[in-house]
């Protein structure tokens, strides 16, 4: 599937920082599949010149994954692409089979954790903890910019901390659901009769894994192993299966880490991973008809679930658009792939702040 000019597999570069719970989703996947990759570590807060200056990417979230000169945004799109693409790996793909109840469960768990607000609820627990990040004015200003586009935060820390009991109730409900339904029959993994963790486990575990790593976030009297024995044994099995436990997928057991300029050289010196030129701008899509979009239209693409879209819109010539994704090529020669879900696309000359 690669269109690298050399015919070889384009390099895979993961932009992330180790404490990102969303980045963990991709690291786990790469390790479970045994897909070798290079990492370019990023600061927790913007600016990130490795992306904005060197690759022309304004998207401010972590992680991003490049495969050659194709850069994929949003973990849901990244995971689905890693499943779809023919990449060198030592282990089989992780998704449930198409058309099965198992795939429905996997998809519902993804929506539950992200769109359903479980992660957002878990993040509210931070304000009840003695976390040094919440005493760092730079970090607070960065997250305020993300949430509100630069306006003052909507809630004071005390107000956010007051939401903690509600967040705990939602997390307890989630544990109860897993304990009494999916895991109730004693299976080892989310999908029955599987011998190793799959994509459904990644979707289901990442919020619990993250909040469990925050000292004091989960009161023992509400979340003990006695109350949810199947859940916490499953989480422990998952931690053992990924590394926290296993060796990285490289043969020497070490992940290569490069600086931004080296990552830029690797990416811009590679070919395309996908031949997106063969894809179309689907005229049947309502957004295409509404804006009169066609190949080559200069558009802006940005996520719609935060207030930072005004300052962090990616601009480029439209390469393809369908029900699943938008692909644009920016002025650095990088093709940026975003999902349709949760993202907005429109001609750049018509973008207005009032549309946010």
UniProtKB/TrEMBL annotation:
Residues 14-85 form the GST N-terminal domain. It holds the Pfam family DUF7962. Residues 123-246 form the DUF7962 domain. CDD domains: GST_C_family, GST_N_family. It comes from the Eukaryota. This is GST N-terminal domain-containing protein.
């Amino acid at each position: 599937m690669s269109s690298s000019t050399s015919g070889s597999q384009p390099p895979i570069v993961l932009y992330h920082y180790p404490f990102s719970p969303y980045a963990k989703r991709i690291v786990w996947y790469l390790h479970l599949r045994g897909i070798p990759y290079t990492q370019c570590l990023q600061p927790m807060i913007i600016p990130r010149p490795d992306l904005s200056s060197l690759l022309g990417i304004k998207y401010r979230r972590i992680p991003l994954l490049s495969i050659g000169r194709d850069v994929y945004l949003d973990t849901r799109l990244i995971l689905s692409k890693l499943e779809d693409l023919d990449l060198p790996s030592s282990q089989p793909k992780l998704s449930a089979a198409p058309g099965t109840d198992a795939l429905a469960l996997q998809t519902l768990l993804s929506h539950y954790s992200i769109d359903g607000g479980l992660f957002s609820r878990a993040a509210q627990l931070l304000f009840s903890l003695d976390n040094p990040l919440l005493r760092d004015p730079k970090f607070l200003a960065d997250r305020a910019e993300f949430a509100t586009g630069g306006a003052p935060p909507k809630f004071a820390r005390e107000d956010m901390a007051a939401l903690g009991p509600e967040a705990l109730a939602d997390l307890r409900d989630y544990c109860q659901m897993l304990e009494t339904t999916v895991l109730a029959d004693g299976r080892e993994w989310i999908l029955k009769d599987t011998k190793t963790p799959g994509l459904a486990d990644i979707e289901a575990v990442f919020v619990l894994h993250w909040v469990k790593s925050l000292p004091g976030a989960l009161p023992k009297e509400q979340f003990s192993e006695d109350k949810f024995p199947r859940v916490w044994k499953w989480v422990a099995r998952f931690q053992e299966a990924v590394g926290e436990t296993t060796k990285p997928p490289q043969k020497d057991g070490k992940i290569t880490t490069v600086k931004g300029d080296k990552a830029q050289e690797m990416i811009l010196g590679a070919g395309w991973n996908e031949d997106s030129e063969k894809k179309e701008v689907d005229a049947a899509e309502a957004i295409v008809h509404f804006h009169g979009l066609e190949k080559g239209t200069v558009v802006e693409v940005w996520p719609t679930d935060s207030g930072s879209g005004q300052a962090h819109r990616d601009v480029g010539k439209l390469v393809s658009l369908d029900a699943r994704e938008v692909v644009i090529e920016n002025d650095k020669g990088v093709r940026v792939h975003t999902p349709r879900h949760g993202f907005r696309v429109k001609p750049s000359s018509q973008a207005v702040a009032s549309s946010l």
